[in-house]
């Protein structure tokens, strides 16, 4: 667990990762050097996995989002399939899930033709895949990578 100041720092960075260290220090009432040290410790302890830029998908012809439920044969091919799926750039998320289907994939492609090729020619051609169910996203109401953090995440004093 972490203290209140570190939690505030994480909230600030999660809202805008490119915020200047001096601004973070001002918001939490600490010296910039002390804030920088805390951030380095948070990174080292694994509270911060990294920093990334969110690109506008439509600028790169990647506006179509699809979710694919994938059932595999369960004959020991899961790890091989996971590795092959994880290597595909079109797949943004790959989750092993409960139920009949083994995996849930979030994919981002340019259009239905590209989605069809991905599903039929790439994923469907993988040995051990025996059922594919695809849903196309018509509109996105909310999409975020933010983790909800609050007072319950503070260390017990």
Notes on the protein architecture:
With 157 residues, this protein is an alpha+beta fold. The chain is elongated and about 55 Å long. The chain has a 4-stranded antiparallel beta sheet. It has helices at residues 4-15, 21-28, 32-44, 78-86, 112-123; strands at residues 64-72, 91-96, 103-109, 129-136. Helix content is 34%, strand content 19%.
Properties at a glance:
157 residues, alpha+beta, 4-stranded antiparallel β-sheet, 5 helices, 19% strand, elongated
Short description:
With 157 residues, this protein is α+β, with helices and mostly antiparallel strands. It is built from 5 helices and 4 strands, in the order αααβαββαβ.
Helix content: 25-40%
Question: Which class do the helix and strand fractions yield?
Answer: alpha+beta
The fraction of residues in strands falls at 15-25%
Instruction: Provide the residue-averaged pLDDT.
Output: 92
Please report the number of helical segments: 5
The main sheet orders its strands as 2-3-1-4
| SSE topology string | HHHEHEEHE
C-alpha Rg, in Å?
Answer: 20 Å
- Strand elements, count: 4
**Multimerization status:** single chain
Low-pLDDT windows of residues: none
Envelope shape? elongated
How far apart are the termini?
10 Å
What is the element layout, followed by pairings?
Elements lengths: L3 H12 L5 H8 L3 H13 L19 E9 L5 H9 L4 E6 L6 E7 L2 H12 L5 E8 L21
Antiparallel strand pairs: 1-3, 1-4, 2-3
Helix pairs in contact: 2-3
